[in-house]
Amino acid sequence: MKKRNFLTTAALAALVAAQMAMPIMAAPATNQIPAGSDQHTTIGIVEASSVSAAQASFDVPLYLVVAAVSGQGNIQAPTNYKISNKAAQGGKSIGVTKMQIENLGEYNASSLDTSAWAIVDGNNGSPTISNKRQIALQLGSLWMPSTLDKAKNEKVAVPFGENTFFQDANGADGKATYKPIEAGKDMDIAVNGQVQNIQRTDGKASSQFKVTYTVSPLEVLY
């Protein structure tokens, strides 16, 4: 019979910003965490004159850092970004049931030198990027929605759908089911993105975005 994953009542919100370095758990605990518990890390962007300069920022724990490198349209990003289910063997699977993103600074297109960054619509890998403070950001297979017209700390829902990165096909009853992260297992989340291909100089990483994952235990039925 087809495996189906149903939500149980507990929910865990894990907060992640937009740049990272070493393995990070977006849901860093077991399914015994009380419903509504929050865990977070911060996402930042660093500008660099070369790839070698960007790599130095990839070793900060619990901090996801991507680099906009001079003369490159694709960002440099870590390959070890993941959500881990730290439950002991025999524990319940968990799944990501909701995702939101927000700006951590104020985007100002008329004053780019002092502006924070903003996300543009990924447009299925063909984004329109108009200036040096815009980024198209992809986590897993999901392109993040635009935050160009959003205020600081205004949350924007990341759309899911059937057979997407975190969501399976709907059940026979039409309800959403979610891809399980089994006890002791990880879900690797590829980080990709595009920026304006311009000349850049070395700078310090600064927090730009926060991603909120709602992670819930799943009841797996056969």
Biggest pleated sheet: 8 strands, mixed
Report Rg: 18 Å
User: How are helices and strands ordered from N to C?
Assistant: EEEEEHEEEEEEEEEE
Shape: elongated
Kindly summarize this structure in a few lines.
The chain has 1 helix and 15 strands. The protein has 222 residues and is mainly beta.
Please give a structural write-up.
With 222 residues, this protein is mostly beta strands. Helices cover 2% and strands 36% of the residues. The strands form three sheets. Strands 1, 2, 4, 5, 6, 8, 12 and 15 form an eight-stranded mixed β-sheet that branches. Strands 9, 10, 11 and 14 form a four-stranded mixed β-sheet that branches. A three-stranded mixed β-sheet has the order 3-7-13, with no helix packed on it. Helix 1 links the parallel strand 5 (42-48) and strand 6 (63-69). The longest helix has 5 residues, at 51-55.
Keywords:
222 residues; mainly beta; 15 strands
SSE arrangement:
Blueprint: E1 4-7, E2 12-17, E3 24-25, E4 38-40, E5 42-48, H1 51-55, E6 63-69, E7 81-84, E8 93-103, E9 118-119, E10 134-139, E11 142-143, E12 156-157, E13 186-188, E14 191-195, E15 206-221
